[in-house]
Amino acid sequence: MIATLRGEISQKEEDALIVEVGGVGLRVHIPATLFQQVNVGESAFFYTHFVVREDAMSLYGFETQADRDLYVLLLSVNRIGPKLALAILSSLSLDTIKRAVFNEEFEILNRVPGVGKKTAQGIILSLQGKLKPMDALEEVAAMSDTDGEVLDALTALGYSVIEAQTAIQSIPKDAPKEVEERLRLALGYFQ
Question: Which domains does the chain have, with CATH numbers?
Answer without folding.
Answer: 4-62 (2.40.50.140), 65-137 (1.10.150.20), 143-189 (1.10.8.10)
